[in-house]
Amino acid sequence: MKFYVMSLFPQMILDGLNTSITGRAIDSGVLSIEAVDIRDFSNNKHMKVDDYPYGGGRHVQGFGHDHAQHGH
Length: 72
Hints:
single chain; alpha+beta; two-stranded parallel sheet; 4 helices
């Protein structure tokens, strides 16, 4: 089985998976894991991969204030 894992921290993924049962499966060739650094696919000079937040709106942003105001 071959798995690809996309991460900002590919070495950390590999370090964790190369231990215990998954490590033995990788060593024996039963399992293959390739961790891909998603920054390699960034198209700007700072290698930025995150985007602007989405969702929310006035109700979510006012959540704490609304509850405090109503005594919840």
